[in-house]
Structures
1.
Amino acid sequence: MTTATTHDTHHEEHRRGLMRWITTTNHKDIGTLYLLLSLLMFMVGGAMAMVIRAELFEPGLQFVEPQFFNSMTTMHALIMIFGAVMPAFVGLANWLIPMMIGAPDMALPRLNNWSFWILPFAFTILLSTLFMDGGAPAGGWTMYPPLVMQTGNAFPFLIFAVHLMGISSIMGAINVIVTIVNMRAPGMTMMKMPLFVWTWLITAYLLIATMPVLAGAVTMLLTDRFFDTSFFNAAGGGDPVMYQHIFWFFGHPEVYILILPAFGIVSQIIPTFSRKPLFGYSSMVYATASIAFLSFIVWAHHMFTVGMPLTGELFFMYATMLIAVPTGVKVFNWVSTMWRGAMTFETPMLFALGFVVMFTIGGFSGLMLAMAPVDFQYHDTYFVVAHFHYVLVTGAVFAIMGATYFWLPKWTGHMYNEKLGKLHFWLSTISVNVLFFPQHFLGLAGMPRRIPDYSVQFAGFNEISSIGGFAFGLTQLLFVYIVFKTIAGGEKATDQVWEGAYGLEWTLSSPPPYHSFSIAPDVK
Amino acid sequence: MSEAAHGSYYVPHGTHWPIVGSIGLTTLLVGVANFLNGLSVGTTMMAIGLAIVIFMMFGWFGQVIRESESGTYNDQVDRSFRWGMGWFIFSEVMFFAAFFGALFYARIYSVPWLGGGDPGTNEFLWSGFEAMWPTNGPGDIGGKFETIGAWGIPAINTLLLLSSGVTVTFAHWALKKNQRMPLVLWLLATVALGFTFLALQITEYTHAYHELNLTLGSGIYGSTFFMLTGFHGFHVTVGAIMLTVIMLRSLKGHFTPDHHFAFEGVAWYWHFVDVVWLGLFIFVYIL
Amino acid sequence: MLVNKIKRTLTAAAAMTALLGATNAAADYALNLTTGVTPISREAHTLHMLILEVCIGIGVVVFGAMFISIVRHRKSRGVQPAQFHESTAVEILWTVVPFLILVGMAIPATKALVAMEDTSDADISIKVTGYQWRWGYDYVDSGISFISSLATPKDQIYNKAEKGEHYLLEVDKPVVVPVNKKVRLLITANDVIHAWWVPQLGMKKDAIPGYINEMWFKIDKEGTYRGQCAELCGKDHGFMPIVVVAKNEADYAQWVAEQKGTASAEKQAAQRTWSKDELVARGETVYNTSCAACHQANGEGVSGAFPALKGSAIATGPVADHLALVMHGKPGTAMAAFANQLSDVELAAVVTFERNAWGNNVGDLVQPSDVKAAR
Ligand code: HEA
Ligand code: HEA
Ligand code: CUA
Ligand SMILES: [Cu+2]
């Protein structure tokens, strides 16, 4: 079998200019688009975070009005989650999954194009709400009714933006699943797949199971506001808390959607730079599956204070605590992979190590939050904010940055500047801890989240946190510089790139051919 | 899977339909949003958006049909479509699950709480409200209403949908034996059953609105009732249209006994709609 | 470099544990969870410390192993990588051990939770209602009822005046409760979800419109305890504090008597006819505490969110419509029903004020008796 795809005789020929990117069905092009959108959204969401941190630098109202502050918090979270982290993971999936399993492309290339090209429209709609009468949504990213009903003209736009993001995610997830089950090269059995592929497969299931539920929840918001329904209105027999149940049935699996691919990335990086196979491959797979399963039965740990019956609180507390077990297995396996390896510390490895340490810190605070009787104290304070930024920023975002350094030479054919990469890591790590660690103290001392102003006792730590925030934000400009510099040129990368690299993607040239594996590779 | 199959996997070369779809969908949704906000441009935008979306569907599906008929898709591509359709239907199931969840939550949990509950919600806030089902809540939202009994039209509708599940299977058997005429006729029967269902459903809705005072605004009962049956009805409509397309394609001689994913995909979808109805019949109408 | 980092983390962690352990209740408030003044809050604190220590312990083991590996198993020291990559025994071990640790933590947590949720046999019950953005308190047994709003002046918030000691944590009328009595709160809300939380009482509960939630506390030390609304409830979510004053039996009884006195004075005031100036003056105060958050002190509202009352059709139109709107609110919008929040006098005053302020020179006035009739 030597011929390429039937129609694909004019191999490298494709449209040029803007139309190439708009009409592309190529997994690498689409991956690039996703990654660039993600970077842009990270900047936008980050700029909003800077507004938050500037306002919180000192007590008193300095720069923005409370309503606008709440809009910033809300939009920051929506943009970071749906615009930065999720598209980054989908972009990585697009680039890597076909190369890792020996496929020519994604299974459903046209659908792939559409799942990307919905997003710019969705975010244009979302961002346009900033200029609407009544301001951008300001009810928190969780969009709890009845408060969210008080949104001005932005309300239906918010709902439809969420619908569009949901459609995009579902199509993307279907594509990932189909590609993985149907496009593996001969010999690439499930239990030979790289962990990144495994974690994405499971993530895709989470997406398909939960995004429609979110769509349902926001649809009910829409009809409650415009079509007289009473889902969340007590006078009509509904219940505002019902929204929270439906939302968190989506929302909790969502946070694992934001971390499982990161687990996969770290599981690729650590063995490479330890020059030793991943410890406990199969237990890693089972642990991921267990986390995914458990994620469906813990949602109400976000709602311990809504007045659930005691038995409900106990159930959700126990189930939540259980998640620490499979997550622990993963952490222990990573450490065991390093154990007695021969480690080197290039930038991707630094990010992976940073991930292991700081994600675990975030996990620990998560476990503390899981204890219902103490969560009554922690809930809706900066302790929660500290928790989720440790898992999201030093977890998900650090993994994405590690992945970028790890595969960028493969994608572009150029080596990035190692010195600058290391500098980026150290500046980020130091500043991010200055940014988020003090927030634990703030939360414990009683500072509620989502407030534009606070009493004077919280001034000190907020100041430190804001300084860390600005430093972390500025450091990310360095990241942007490094990435674009590498795309533009630089030292030629070898095909294998890293001494310890293993897996199909490293057998391709750097940069890889337009169609990854027109001829199925041999998998031992 | 053989290496040959692998190498000839069809990867289309660029497509403009998705961007057309995105523009259409965005125009449509922005139009609806403006309409809801009371802006007059809304309706025009909606119409334009909808037209673009329909244009996109014709174009995109037409292209896929042409490619399919010209034999571009090998077995592996066919499998991709099957997996894709399967998981798409699963996502639809989860969408309905959200609304069923709302129904169960209200019936089992929130309405009883409003009508008493340990802390005395009805003592302090809704004195005199007693938990029962159906209800439009302690605020008597929408005024008194009556419900639709299960054993009238809904039962007939159940029979219609169940038999349409059978007829579509007969059509499939006919297709597998390459008996074109029975194929078309069974499909016709299925489509007819589907549209009859819809017609009856519309009569029911009219009845509910005009005589029973049961509306979307009838508290939690009206909300769950109309949203569940309404979304189901929408899916029946989509399914019936898709079946019609399949029927027309069968008339044109499309599909072969061993290569007819489109037919099967639509049949699956129809069965899914069927099963959702059974759930509705039991939990919305009977119980 | 990484070595240094880990060293730093460990020293910091050690220093922190020492800090947390050594300092007394008052001083560690700023760094750590308060021990508070109720049995429940102490329970929460104990559990918090337990799980924190367990986490730090596990952290030391895990990061320690990683640290050793990073130092000793690095390529620059010329090591050859081992090739082992599996061991069912250790996998089972590190599944079971964490599980047992978790069981160990779940047991005391369960006990604490059961105690916290037991609201039976309360000595007094107070119904707490969250409004945008103030708290209403109704003493179920003694009939005392009042609204408690932020007392911090705007000038402090906008940095035009020096911030006071209790900046943002002070109210015009605190909730007063007796010490050593089991106080049960019946919590609800009028418009959107709020949450009632005073850290030193160890409990937080959401206030859900249309539903009643319960929580309880038993304070064992006289004093003033401050907290805040803990659920995002709109623009002034950060400005709806809670102040609880715990008094001994005698002082509490005296406070109750005083409140009853004020209530009957207010009742009497509602009987008589008020002059326009009196109404406008009183109305301005009511307006500034209850309405200005949305409609703004200058009556111009916020475009797109809160309508201007200056020149508004309702505030210059028929009196009855205006009064009805304020009393019953507008369902589905942020405009709440004020009939239960404000007294007859206050309602009469605020409507009169609105009709005669900012150039709305309608000239007419509403008497408390009119409000009474409209109820
Ligand atoms: C990537 C995202 C992510 C991840 C991975 C997690 C992981 C976890 N989260 Fe987190 N969480 C969020 C994102 C995330 N969370 C967000 C965004 C919110 C706030 C949403 C909002 O309100 O806006 C939130 C809020 C949140 C709450 C609600 C708090 C509140 O509002 O009151 C709770 C409560 O239980 C919780 C718990 C947990 C737990 C138990 C884990 C566990 O998965 C952690 C497991 C990991 C470990 C425990 C560490 C490693 C394990 C070992 C080394 C083994 C041994 C350990 C022991 C036996 C102790 N999270
Ligand atoms: C993946 C998700 C994600 C990510 C990456 C981040 C990243 C950051 N977050 Fe975010 N955050 C959330 C998810 C996330 N957050 C969520 C879910 C909430 C809850 C929302 C809610 O309550 O509803 C939240 C809430 C939240 C709050 C609480 C707000 C409140 O309760 O009122 C704060 C406050 O400090 C904060 C800060 C930050 C900061 C400083 C960063 C930084 O890491 C950002 C760094 C990046 C940049 C700064 C961009 C790059 C640089 C430039 C564009 C150059 C310009 C730079 C300068 C001018 C210095 N976030
Ligand atoms: Cu009330 Cu926040
Ligand atoms: Cu969660």
2.
Amino acid sequence: MFQRSADAPTGVGLGLRASFAAEVEAGHADGRVPFFEVSPENHMRRGGIGPARLARIAARFPMLTHGLSMSLGGPDPFDPDFFAALREFLAALPASFGPRWHSDHLCFCGVDGKALHDLLPLPFTGASAKRVAARVREASERLERPMLVENISYYMPLGASTLDEADFVTEVVERADCGLLLDVNNVFVNARNHGFDPREWLSRVPLARVAQLHIAGHELADGDDDVIIDTHGAPVRAEVDELLAWVIERLGPVPVLLERDNNIPELDELLTERDRLAVVYNAALARWCDGHV
Amino acid sequence: MAMSESHTDELADELAPLRAFCAAMCDATAPEQVKADLPGFLAGHGVTPADQAAIAAHAKRLLLYRKMVHSRLRGVVEDFLPRTAEHLGKPRLRADIAAFMADRAPHTVYFREIPGEFLAWAVPRWRADPGLPAFLVDLARHEWLDGEVSNAVAGGESASGIPLAIDRPVQLDGSVQLRRYDFAVHRSDEPPAHEATAILAYRDRESLRVRLLELTPRAAAVCARLLAGETLQAALAGACEELGEALGDEFLAAMASFFADLGERGVLLGAAA
């Protein structure tokens, strides 16, 4: 059964973004960030300043990897060239802990070779879970490392569901025997948009398989639809802090990644938000420790 | 056989909503069809009645997804081609992204490569459109040049160690690109001046920043031939013929000076091995 690496980094880390990578390289995050997460697609098959800078940062910080375009739920066969390049990229990162996993999303990204560059929802059915789980296993074998799959924000069901989302996620990770990258903000966003209790949802997924958390900000959509969108473009909201704490109290120490992809503030401001979340994390961790003494 | 066919049918049924969803993101007339008759749109893409019923109430959300997908693509085009996007204007860019999605859609999984795929699709259409500024294609190609050169996998190679020889091709840094424009789009003048221009772009091997050299017609003609793999002699002779010049001392002196500059910049790396 999947088990998370005992020596993986823990605490609240940041997604490494081009807008502040030079500052990180210059040492502005030293001692303040336990790890960074990087999206390989932004660095693979690429020369120039980005990969050179990443190599220097990866030599100083533990680095988690999180993919954007594997289309784990998609109908197209995996592209061997993409996987070869990804495997090479992952192997080139310093081995700061092990076995080091790679993560991607429980979604599809396109059909018939079209790459839509978004995280699109899957049908919540047993057949879909079985098919996706087989693809997760295949991805893990191709990469020669464990996979984590991340629960996404979804804004509509894609067909008649025979499972709810929590059951679907559980079915996939159990069948694939993979880890779960639990995006706490996505749970909150989905709970709000689809009208369910996020804690009840969380109590039904296999927390023992959770190797990493994601946390981010969400925003109300433009227009007259009362839907909140996982924009990664705003600070994390208090309600999501609470959910994060709830999870940490039950899970103990894990890497928690603060994602920010839009309206990215200055690094100092982002570090301040990271520090605030670290207080939430540490307080919850102390409660977890009390329960385990 | 029957089991296999049944399995195939089940898989087709399972994947039909994904295909329909993708069509809703891409097809030109999808917004109107989705608003008018979502079940009909879904049925047209093979979605089963049960799945149609589950999706039918979510036309607004389906179009929200379409808006998000198109916005993200438009955003990366605006990031890489800001002046081009400004000249096109938001409504035209929005329409062109929608047409690109309907016609082809991105196929690269690398987000940064989308503007290149979009341009490959858009350039012939923009050239044929008399309503657009004549400099637009040059401007877009020039803006994209920065993305291409800065991210090129090639570049920074070691010098060949072989002295330049008249009967051999040369080795240039792998990031080098030569562009010819009808407008001086490399300057910030708005609108760009109508002026034949040749630009050599390369990635500086120390700073890893893109550097641009505005080339004389002579240098451009020689460079184009060297990049095509001609020997130094053939490149010089061919350039002179192309420009209607004699291959004399003055021409050779100018090219010697040009090659020396390229060598100092780490662009010219000796004779090819």
